[in-house]
């Protein structure tokens, strides 16, 4: 184990230079250190959430170069169809509904508020939805500030917000892969506004396109700085680039498996106690590589999902649904203890509703 790195991570003193040296050094010592940090910070439990992803529409006016989903099928769900999907999630005792969508001009503040109210009127479930990009465009379409839009969403029933649309928080990279998305500053400002309003969010990175390790490290340090100011991030989610069927397909085939594990381990070292929960994306990496990442710093298996057309469109072949029992089996197979949680990492017993049972 790299004892100096271990101690500096726990004390919050890791530097960008430390991070770069870890990437270039002995990977097995690096992974061992990340795993020991995981044990110290969160113990041997692996958490998971029973949830459903609902993709509202694949129509989108943004046109990110890495996107394989835009107009892939050509669909737009009605409120009734969304409620039907939420109902199916409730039948398996899901505590979270995650709404994902393209961005269209009709998606105003009122549109989202009406949708959130309709879900909350019928179901006891946590709504995890919107990204800073969606908030920005909805606010512009409604002639209000992003802060005012966020406040309206919170009052209408939004429980937590996604950390999506971050991709790589380096503007020179964003210009190459998502030039119509919000800038790094706007993304950070909207995330900070959400945290100020008491709306907690996830944080994420999409890696494996045209960025460098230095860009990835810069991205994570930006997130760490935000977390130290707001304490609003619930978790960090590395999302490996799915390279099929998009405009970046001829520029990158995505990260290799070793870099996937390095990214998760590096997140554990950089974030230390600041962001204690590091999630694997089993849909993108597969369950076996996810199990490896959970032995190299990560501690959360994500969710049951039930559908993920976005990853499938990009080339994922790992399925779109894992049951509660599947997740428990995958966790116990690597000698760890499963714990079902809700979006806010509170303990949940099946059938207890969205609020779950707060951990003692």
What features would you describe in this structure?
Helix 1 (3-11) packs parallel to helix 3 (27-42), helix 4 (79-90) packs parallel to helix 5 (109-122) and helix 5 (109-122) runs parallel beside helix 7 (146-156). This protein has a six-stranded parallel sheet with strand order 2-3-4-5-6-7, covered by helices on one side. A three-stranded parallel sheet has the order 8-1-9, covered by helices on one side. Helices cover 44% and strands 13% of the residues. It is an alpha/beta fold and 360 residues long. The chain has one domain (3-341): Aldolase class I (TIM Barrel). It starts with a helix and ends in a 19-residue tail after the last strand. The chain has helices spanning 3-11, 16-24, 27-42, 79-90, 109-122, 132-141, 146-156, 171-177, 184-196, 213-230, 257-271, 282-285, 287-293, 309-313, 324-332; strands at 45-49, 51-55, 96-100, 126-129, 160-161, 200-207, 233-240, 300-303, 337-341.
